[in-house]
Structures are given as C-alpha cells and as structure tokens.
Design brief:
The complex is a heterodimer of chains A (113) and B (114). Chain A is mostly beta strands and 113 residues long. Chain A has no helices and eleven strands. In chain A, the strands form two sheets. In chain A, strands 2, 4, 5, 9, 10 and 11 form a six-stranded mixed beta sheet that branches. A five-stranded antiparallel beta sheet of chain A has the order 1-3-8-7-6, with no helix packed on it. In chain A, a hairpin with a 4-residue loop joins strand 7 and strand 8. In chain A, 36% of the residues are buried. Chain B is mainly beta. Chain B is built from no helices and eleven strands. In chain B, strand 5 and strand 6 form a beta hairpin. The model of chain B has no long low-confidence stretch (mean pLDDT 92). Classes of the chains: A mainly beta (113), B mainly beta (114). The interface between A and B is medium-sized, with 28 and 27 residues.
C-alpha cells in the first residue's frame, strides 16, 4: 500500500494562473515533507520542504501547505510559467531530517502559454 | 554544486545478463541511494548506503545487490536481469548532519531488458 499518494496523475493550467498540486499520506509518523520537480531525461531536483512543526513554507513563487489533521499537503505555484511544466513528486520521511524518503506517484503539470 | 553522475543514460540488456549500474558523487556525501521510477508508482527505494561498505535494503531489494567500496561510488547490480526490471534507475546522495533531508539525484539510467 502506498503511504504517499498523489491522486491526480496530470494537471493542466494556463500561464499566469495558480497551479495546485496535492498529496495525501497515511503514515502519521511522517514529520518532514518535500517536493521535487523532474524534467524528462533528468533526475528529480529539490524544490521546497516543510517540517511538521509548520503549516506553511514559502519560497518565491512556490508555497507548500501542510494539514496534519487531514494528512494532506499541497504545493501552490503562483504565477505558473511554461517552464514549470514537469512531473512533481511529493516525498515524506520519519524521524526528522536524515531518514529515507517515501515518494508519491507524481503529477504531471502542463502550463499552457 | 553537487554533482551526481551515472555511467549510462540508456542501456539495453538481455534476460539473464548481469548488469552493473554505476553512480558517482563528488560532494563527499555519506549517504547514497538507488531508486527505480515506474509510471504511477513514483520512486521506490531499492538499496541505500550510509557509509563505505555499509548497505541497507530499501522497499524493493529483490533481484538487486549493491556495492560501496569507496565513499564516492555506489553500484547497483542486477545479478540476472529480467524483463520486469526494465525501468528508469535513479541514484541519489545526501550528506549527514545538515538538519535537512534533500537528496541530490543523478540524471538516471533507462534500462531495457529484452
């Protein structure tokens, strides 16, 4: 059973609008969450992270929200740009920074000009 | 910048062959990881290593082994390749003790077993 799930395999958004990517998890021991972006033929690159002691972390156009009671996190990209078109993976770990990551299945974001 | 390199971008092997995938990182990271990426399943951890000659099984170690003789190099071995091992293989590394958990990935090796 997947402990980290991204239920939308794909998402299409107009340039300049908001992109919202969602991620749900089942393991209540997860306490550190990350988002990675992956372009075709490249490895994933780290985007943004959040610790379970916070409910929001912002970095430029990217904001991650964490709802621990719902075991749900989301990544907001505002405004979306065509260069944001990629596959986005959420990942989670237990025991704070330093442990293995469990990844979701990924969401393919397409930003249309 | 952290650099993680993988020996091949594309590889085609026959069923039953022994396959070696090599990964090298240049940032003196203690931890290294091997994943496979399949559509809809995300990245699944095969093996990881937290020090030279140390290895730990991940979620899907069956059919694979690893070797870490030097800190910068982590090899994934398919003892007898099978068609269900056709996949994208990703190597990653991460330092210890930074208080952060980001892993740095190589470009991947797309392996096809026929």
């Amino acid at each position: 059973d997947q402990q980290v799930k991204q239920n939308s395999p794909s998402l299409s958004v107009q340039e300049g609008r908001i992109s919202i990517l969602n991620c749900d998890y089942t393991n209540s021991m997860f306490d550190y969450f990350l988002w990675y972006k992956k372009y075709p033929a490249e490895g994933p690159t780290f985007l943004i992270s959040i610790s379970s002691i916070k409910d929001k972390n912002e970095d430029g156009r990217f904001t991650v929200f964490l709802n621990k009671s719902a075991k749900h996190l989301s990544l907001h990209i505002v405004p979306s740009q065509p260069g944001d078109s990629a596959v986005y993976f959420c990942a989670a770990s237990t025991g704070g920074a330093g442990n293995m990551l469990t990844f979701g299945g990924g969401t393919r974001l397409m930003v249309k000009p | 910048d952290v650099k993680v390199t993988q020996s091949s971008r594309y590889l085609v092997k026959r069923t039953g062959e022994k396959v070696f995938l090599e990964c090298v990182q240049d940032m003196d990271h203690e931890n290294m990881f091997w994943y496979r990426q399949d559509p809809g399943l995300g990245l699944r951890l095969i093996y990881f290593s937290y020090d030279v000659k140390m290895k730990e099984k991940g979620d899907i170690p069956e059919g694979y082994s690893v070797s870490r003789e030097k800190k910068e190099r982590f090899s994934l071995i398919l003892e007898s390749a099978s068609t269900n091992q056709t996949s994208m293989y990703l190597c990653a590394s991460r330092p210890t003790g930074t208080g952060r958990n980001e892993q740095y990935f190589g470009p991947g090796t797309r392996l096809t077993v026929t």
